[in-house]
Every structure is written in structure tokens, then in C-alpha cells.
Amino acid sequence: MRPIRLHVAVPLLAGFLLGGLAGTARGESAAPAEGPKDPTYAALRAAKPDGRTLAVSGLVLERDAFRFEFASGTFHFLAPVEGRTIGAVFLGQGTFRLNPATPGERRSLALDSGGDPKTFETLTDSFTRLVLLFGDDTAAELQLAAPVQTGAPAREAIDAWEEHMKRQRKDYHLNFHLRILADLLDIPGMTSGAFLAFLEGQKIGPALAAVDPRGAEAVGVGAGGKEDSIFYVADQTKGGSWYESESAAEIKGGRRTALWRSTDATHYDVETAVARDEDVAGTTTIHFQTLTKLRVLPVNLQPELRLRSARFALEGDETWTALPFVQEAEKEDGNSAVIFPRQLAKGEKIRLELVYAGDKVLIDMGEKNYAVLS
Fold first, then answer.
1. d(CA 145, CA 127)
2. Angle 167-128-72 (CA atoms, 0-180°, nearest 5)?
3. Is the dihedral of CA 197, 172, 85, 186 positive or negative?
4. What is the mean pLDDT of the chain?
5. Is 286 exposed, middle or buried (CB count within 10 Å of its CB: 0-12, 13-18, 19+)?
6. Dihedral of CA 276/280/283/284: which sign?
7. Neighbours of 46 (CB within 10 A)
8. What share of the chain is helix, strand, coil (3-state, %, to 5)?
9. Higher pLDDT, 229 or 221
10. Across residues 154-172, what is the average pLDDT?
11. Per-residue model confidence as pLDDT tens digits over 274-323
């Protein structure tokens, strides 16, 4: 074993803690170790259409630059988590419209979508199914339109949900459940969280239309900035971030939102051992102060490095508490996060220890020279 120890003092510039040594994998890494399980995340991940439905006709949902019109069809709600409905599958006839907030964004969207910048106004499409995940008041808004009916889950709705989950893993490579988990646990009862609409249109798709007060970085797509509204196309040839903008209200009012941050990391202790030529094991202890109330903390750890354990202690206290952590399959939606047992108050000083390992994390550059290409 060749240990490498680093002691780094570095401020955190984003809302995520940056943990450990990262690299590009060649081959399969070991599965994550078994640790404490978080019941809310488990319920969220398992939620699917539960038989509650709501039939609509001519219903309109507007979220900043996005407008969804549901001409006719049925919403199939996902099973509640923490007493809240956090998603639905729509089956029927609907249309989508994106009206850019500024002339510059309109021109950029025209170029990305193949439109004529001189005449382009809005991006439109039609759909027969739409998957929603939300930490805002969408469920309450939908239930104003019609009474909710109960019955057996529809096979077609379950199939649509399972197809969405396959796309999350194979096309987006992002765990969107973590974003909704934060809305559920950071401030219980809050209904001003993220709105995520997964579109499979007649012309565009798969695509994500998102409005998030925490910004694009919290969603995990695009350039990852502070913009509230994002339209991201998960296509191998013409995909990417087609639209990222602050909200129309912010632009009109002349105010710009600062980058959302949950923590301020002040110091990293990194101990890394190269067990074999390309295999790495490490422990990182991160010292940070909370800038907001939180329970769910995303950790920017390369998925090839598999978490073994996580624990935390208050600064100055030697009592460590094991933490549940989330890390799905390495080559799919392998985002990482830790979940604290209680809501951390703003201003708390915390030490977070992460233990991880990965096979073939380093890259053999020849003649027994190795590099981390991340």
C-alpha cells in the first residue's frame, strides 16, 4: 500500500461538497458497502403509480417559461412519500411550449432546436405522456381541477413510469430522486421546491423541463449554474442544454439570484492509498459550516469510487454518528449524497468523513506511470 496524505484548506464555491479523489474507470468497481438505510429515500425510489387518478380536460400548468396544456387525459399519481404526493404520470393528449425570457435566450434556443433565429418565437411540441416529479405545490394545483379517484394501478401508467426510470439511468445518468428528497427532508412541509417534467414529444425528446429555485446546479444538468429554468435534451446527437435562464420575474424586476449554496467547506483531510497499480482507496474528512437548514447533502464524488461508509461529528466533539448514504449503480444514476438524522441548523460546524474505494480508477500512461484524468 502506498499512502498519500493531503491536508487542504479550500473554500467551497458551490452548493455541493467536493469529496475525494476522482478518475475515469476502465472496468467494474465493487458494489457499495451496506450501511444505514434511509427510509424516506427507499420509499421515494420505490414510489410508482398507486391507483389514484385524476381525469382532466383543458388543464393548463405554467411554470416560469414553460406552459403545459393537457387537452384530455388522466394523471396517475405516484405513491405518497412522507405524506406528500411527489409525482405523477400523465397519459393522454397534451402540448408543450417554451417561451424564452430574453431575446438572447430565444436566439440560442432557435439555433439549438434548428429554427430560424429571425422568425423563431417559441418552442412547441405535443405529447401523449409526461412524467412529473415535484417538490412544489403541483399536487394541490392538480387536485383543484377534478376529484381524485382510486382504484387498481393502470398497467400503462406503470409501464410509462418504468420506462422513465430506465431513461433516468441510461440517458440522463442522474439520480433525480435526490433533488426531490432534499425538498422533502431539508425543510418539511415546504411547497416551493423543484418542478421536473420529463417530456417525450412528437419532435423532441427525451427532454427535461425544470424550474428549480436552487438553480441548474441542484438539478445536475447543463452548465450547472444558478439559472432557475432549464430545458435539457438527452439526445446522443443534438442533445444538451437548450435553455438555461433566470426566471422571467427576476429578469423583469432587474434582480438576479445569487448561486445557491448549502455549505461552506473550510478544510479537507484526504488520505489515499494506491492498493494496486490502478486501484484506489481513500478517506476524506471535510470540515464545513452550514449556510442553510439541511438534511440531504449531495457529494460530488466520481461514481467509479464506491462509498464504503459515511459518518459525521460536530466540530470539537469526538462522538461520531454513522450516516445513510445514497449511491446507485456506477454506470447509471450514480450520484452520491449523505442524509443527516436531523435537520442541521444554519451555522452549525460539522466534520463529515467519507470512506471509498474503486478498481481501475487511475489510468496507466505507460511504463508504470499513472494519472487521474478528472
1. 20
2. 140
3. negative
4. 89
5. buried
6. positive
7. 10
8. 15, 45, 40
9. 229
10. 96
11. 877 778 899 999 999 999 999 999 999 888 899 999 999 999 999 999 99
Burial (Cβ within 10 Å: 0-12, 13-18, ≥19) of residue 338: buried
Closest CA to 53 of 168, 128, 151: 151
Residue keyed to cell 500500500: 1
Residue whose C-alpha cell reads 499512502 in the numeric block? 3
> Are the C-beta atoms of residues 306 and 327 closer than 8 Å to each other?
yes
Residue with cell 434548428: 114
Cell numbers 467536493 label which residue?
18
Mean pLDDT, residues 43-56 taken together: 98
Cell of 13: 464555491
pLDDT of residue 29: 41
Report yes or no: 339 and 38 within 8 Å, Cβ to Cβ: yes
Dmax (CA) of the chain: 70
Query: Residues 171-192: pLDDT tens digits?
Result: 999 999 999 999 999 999 999 9
pLDDT above 50 for 362: yes
Residue type, 150: T
Distances (CA, A) of 117 to 27, 97, 120: 44, 17, 5
As beta bridge partners, residue 91 has 74, 129
CA torsion through residues 29, 30, 33, 39, sign:
positive
Geometric angle at alpha carbon 189, from 53 and 227, rounded to 5°: 90
